[in-house]
Amino acid sequence: MRLLEEKINTDGIVISENVLKVDSFLNHQIDPKLMNEIGKEFAELFAGEGITKILTIESSGIAPAVMAGLYLDVPVLFARKRKSLTLFEDLITATVHSFTKNETNEISISKKYINEDDRILIIDDFLANGQAASALARMVEEVNAQVVGIGIVIEKSFQDGAQILKDHGYRVESLARIASLTNGEVTFKHEKMEELV
Ligand code: 5GP
């Protein structure tokens, strides 16, 4: 997605060979117009798949997921990282090791909002080693709902996540793919010419 790549080029900060900081438009401050375009793109990619719900994880997945939910006209559910006093229904839980924070969190969603008839689109901000997306997929499958696909805003293709998810048979659609972050520079991965349009 050209607009997203341009934004990464102008506003992204390469923290290390493995980490990109995009706090100015996705992870702290949010660019609503860009989120709108991202939501539209996800909706086009997954149109006709009979998606009934989007599942993401707090907090940075919520903005792109909500915009996609608006265009697909489906509710958006987000997994919580902390136990909430108001989240006392039957819970589905999974553990996720956070790539950026180097800590393990238990994440949960209420069984009230997901069931075996659901066709779920998982959305997240970044894909690194695939821990977050895999945990979300496991939660969906625990209630026998179906994972229709995984939509990622920024995939770091030099890490294992995308391949692991594809090897599991999931359809992964990433709006920007990063081939490397070496020498403080972002290099994008383009497989097909049409991705540039
Ligand atoms: P994974 O679970 O695929 O290993 O990592 C994905 C999660 O880690 C995302 O939800 C995101 O919050 C965080 N993450 C991974 N890599 C990066 C990165 O380069 N920059 C930022 N800002 N977050 C990242």
Descriptive terms for the model:
197 residues; alpha/beta; Rossmann fold; 6-stranded mixed sheet; two-stranded antiparallel sheet; 6 helices; 10 strands; 30% helix; 29% strand; binds guanosine-5'-monophosphate
Describe the structure.
The protein is α/β, with parallel strands linked by helices. The chain has a single domain (2-196), classed as Rossmann fold, CATH 3.40.50. The protein has 6 helices and 10 strands. The chain has helices at 2-11, 23-27, 32-45, 62-72, 131-142, 161-167, and strands at 13-14, 20-21, 53-57, 76-79, 91-97, 104-110, 119-127, 146-156, 172-180, 187-188. The chain has a 6-stranded mixed sheet with strand order 4-3-7-8-9-10, sandwiched between helices. The chain has a two-stranded antiparallel sheet with strand order 1-2. Helix 5 (131-142) links the parallel strand 7 (119-127) and strand 8 (146-156). The longest helix is centred in the first third of the chain and has 14 residues, at 32-45. It is globular. The protein binds guanosine-5'-monophosphate.
Characterize this entry briefly.
With 197 residues, this protein is α/β, with parallel strands linked by helices.
